[in-house]
Amino acid sequence: MNLQLSHFSAAVLFSVFASVVFGITQRSTSREQIRYGLYCFAMFVGGVFVAGWVMWLLRH
Amino acid sequence: MANPSTSKETTAPQPVTFMSVAAPAIGWLIPGAGHLIQKRWIRGLLLMASIVTMFMLGLAMQGRVYRPNGGDILDILGFVGDVGAGGLYIVTRAMDLGQGAIARATADYGTKYIIVAGLLNFISAADAYHIAIGKKP
What we know:
The complex is a heterodimer of chains A (60) and B (137). By secondary structure, chain A is mostly helical. Chain A contains 2 helices and no strands. Chain A is flat and about 45 Å long. In chain B, 66% of the residues lie in helices and 0% in strands. Chain B is elongated.
């Protein structure tokens, strides 16, 4: 099997799985876990966009 | 100034129980199982699904699984990350999967997926230990 993902989809999938684990392991209550998981996901995906624009600026 | 009785409580050694040893060990061997044996069903299943899926996607992307080595420091660190996946790593090595396709960019993503799945499993096993000793509900 050979799965070919774009850079963006690979980064988003990575963000989903890492955020789930971070949310569960770094907070105690269910509500906090969901909030922290969503926060991590937003930070991951936001970081992807910021890094993308930084690379674009460096390129131009 | 710190309350002496409070600092004494926080530094007191935790009693070694069967669960405090078994939960992280089983959690390392089978991702999420450290939570499942403590009846944290939803957490355990979510951890298992996330870590196993990440590892499998890494393999499907032709990622490389590092062998034990004493060479380049990055290879050693790659091995440390991979071995965190426990049983997944052992089965993958036994089946001789994870050779890695250097020519493909996605294979490099796959290698990183496999390493991070192992590192996340280390965190998951540590969390199972904290539940076992009562530090976390």
